[in-house]
UniProtKB/TrEMBL annotation:
It comes from Aureibaculum flavum. The keyword Disulfide bond does not apply. Residues 105-198 form the 4'-phosphopantetheinyl transferase domain. This is 4'-phosphopantetheinyl transferase superfamily protein. Keywords: Transferase. GO terms for molecular function: transferase activity. The lineage of its organism: Bacteria, Pseudomonadati, Bacteroidota, Flavobacteriia, Flavobacteriales. It comes from the Bacteria. Pfam families: ACPS (PF01648). The keyword Cytoplasm does not apply.
Length: 213
């Protein structure tokens, strides 16, 4: 089974990443879905989406959960019935989860693509990154910024929250593999820890609900 990577963030938080290499038939083995989730999978037109969905159930199994332990609220946000915190992501051939026993968490995996250069103005201020002369490095950096904002949105998830107007990611170096980000919304300011890692042309970014100031 291609459990690609396991990261122990701290004693209460863990990240697991799966590389989807198996067929849907192989991924179906050993996994029992609720009727609701089975209907959801049956309704998926994309084979890769089906495989992604099932690989996440294998990630859950790695940490002792079954499909029935997971439920989604009215906003589509996943929750665990035992009260632990979870966030889920899927991008092409990779899926990932982050779990914490104590704090809200968010995770995002993104494939590094030039497309992000065309849409960067929608989620950040491009002038902040004009000093980066290399397009490849710019794509890497913008992918982290986007992923950080996605992960934070999964934590905060309030109607009207804007990636561009309300979430700011502090500048960082690739070597640090971490930074901070701030959400300023409805007269409230919160700062979070952001971590990132790169593999096979993808970027995984995850956020911890740890208020620093």
């Amino acid at each position: 089974m291609p459990l690609y990577k396991t990261l122990k963030v701290n004693q209460n938080t863990k990240v697991l990443i799966w590389k989807i290499e198996e067929s849907i038939e192989t991924l179906n083995k050993g996994i029992t879905l609720t009727d609701k989730c089975q209907n959801r999978v049956d309704g998926m037109k994309s084979e890769l989406h089906k495989r992604g969905f099932m690989s996440i159930r294998h990630l859950l199994a790695e940490v002792g959960y079954v499909d029935a332990d997971l439920y989604y609220d009215e906003f589509g946000k996943p929750h665990l019935k035992d009260g632990n915190f979870i966030s889920i992501t899927h991008s092409f051939i990779f899926t990932g989860i982050i779990l914490s026993t104590t704090k809200h968490v968010g995770i995002d995996i993104e494939k590094q693509r030039d497309k992000i250069l065309r849409i960067s103005h929608k989620f950040t201020t491009p002038e902040d990154y004009y000093h980066i002369p290399n397009e490849y490095e710019l794509v890497r950096k913008l992918t982290i910024v986007w992923g950080a904002k996605e992960a934070l949105y999964k934590i905060y998830e309030q109607e009207g929250l804007s990636f561009l107007q309300h979430i700011y990611v502090d500048d960082f170096s690739f070597e640090d593999t971490e930074t901070t980000a701030t959400i300023t919304y409805k007269n409230k300011k919160s700062t979070y820890q952001i971590h990132f890692l790169e593999f096979e042309g993808f970027m995984c970014t995850y956020a911890l609900d740890e208020v620093i100031n």
